[in-house]
Automatic annotation (TrEMBL):
This is Ribosome hibernation promoting factor. CDD domains: RaiA. NCBIfam families: yfiA. One of its GO terms (molecular function) is ribosomal small subunit binding. GO terms for cellular component: cytosolic small ribosomal subunit. The keyword Phosphoprotein does not apply.
């Protein structure tokens, strides 16, 4: 799984990069057909924004989150993507039954 992390109007520190990679590794445990992930962090009027597009077999998932704290935004983003991955997995499983 390839993770591309970029910052929009901000620098992505090694600590943020490591935290993000650790969180996204947890997603792969639930769904092993993730091919790549694009993550973009940004700042807009003192709000921290985290967005991600997850490319999976048979589609792609997108989510975004914002908070006063970037780490909180990342956690919320992971929760949203985790729910989407579970739905995607169930939908694909139902097509095979």
């Amino acid at each position: 799984m390839q993770i591309n992390i970029t910052g929009h109007h901000m620098d992505v520190t090694p600590a943020i990069r490591a935290f993000t990679e650790e969180k996204f590794d947890k997603l792969e445990r639930h769904f092993d057909q993730i091919t790549s992930i694009n993550v973009v962090f940004g700042v807009e009027k003192l709000r921290q924004i985290a967005e991600a597009t997850v490319y999976v077999a048979k589609g792609e998932l997108h989510a975004s989150s914002e908070s006063d704290d970037l780490y909180t935004a990342i956690d919320t983003l992971i929760d949203k993507l985790d729910r989407q991955l579970i739905k995607h997995k169930e939908k694909n499983r139902n097509h095979h039954d």
